[in-house]
From TrEMBL:
The gene is npdG. This is NADPH-dependent F420 reductase. It comes from Micromonospora echinofusca. InterPro entries: NAD(P)-bd_dom_sf, NpdG, P5C_Rdtase_cat_N, STEAP_metalloreductase. The keyword Oxidoreductase applies. Signal peptide: none annotated. Keywords: Oxidoreductase. It comes from the Bacteria. Residues 11-103 form the Pyrroline-5-carboxylate reductase catalytic N-terminal domain.
Length: 220
């Protein structure tokens, strides 16, 4: 997949990049030819993880990665979401921030969506990062598939939500940089809750069918 002109020359930072989702996205972005900064609470762990990935991937603390990135992907656990973004708000000002965090709980019956006072993780991010442009995306992409070096393509669509057309277009291009993936505009940021919550349904499907299900949108 060719990198779009809008993405060319931009650095992608992935915060929480040593976790499965962040690490998988970093792998795919780097494989597409993008420069990637992989962030973590531990810079040493980030450097070690970055060294295990192909392509132009550098490890750093979350703060240093956020500073270096032109587009910043947030892939941290829900429990640390608000705290991290509050700390990094000054360095994220003026940047496109892509939130892919799913607020989920787990009990004996499986995964379920948590209530978020702001409506969704993405809306919480937008409330904290008032100087940034927040886009919601990459919620439904299997980390197992992203991390599998034997798979050249990832068969899924990525729903992209936001209130700024140029930003959502750029994030759709970022999704499409991964072979097999298509970025599909999914509405305004206020609609992010049901997209985040649907991840609980996918987890249930994966457990029942022993799969790594994604989402495909028809007729667009």
């Amino acid at each position: 997949m060719t990198i779009s002109d809008a993405l060319r020359g931009r650095t992608i930072a992935v915060l929480g990049g040593t976790g499965p989702q962040g690490r998988g996205l970093a792998r795919r972005f780097a494989a597409a030819g993008l420069d990637v900064f992989l962030g973590s609470r531990s810079a040493e762990r980030a450097v070690e993880t970055a060294g295990s990935l192909p392509g132009r991937v550098r490890g750093a603390s979350n703060a240093d990665a956020a500073t270096a990135g032109d587009v910043v992907v947030v892939a941290v656990p829900w429990d640390g979401h608000a705290e991290l973004l509050t700390d990094l708000a000054p360095v994220l000002a003026g940047k496109i921030v892509v939130d892919c965090v799913n607020p989920l709980g787990f009990d004996k019956q499986g995964a379920y969506a948590l209530s978020v006072a702001e409506g969704s993780a993405a809306q919480q991010a937008a409330g904290i990062l008032t100087g940034s442009t927040v886009v919601a995306a990459f919620h439904h992409v299997s980390a197992v598939i992203l991390e599998d070096p034997q798979l050249d393509t990832v068969d899924t669509d990525v729903l992209v939500l936001g209130d700024d057309r140029a930003a959502t277009d750029l994030v759709q291009d970022l999704a499409a940089a991964i072979p097999g993936v298509r970025g599909v505009y999914g509405g305004r940021l206020r609609n992010a809750h049901q997209v985040e919550a649907f991840t609980a349904n996918l987890i249930s499907m994966n457990r029942r069918y022993k799969a790594h299900a994604g989402v495909r949108v028809t007729d667009v």
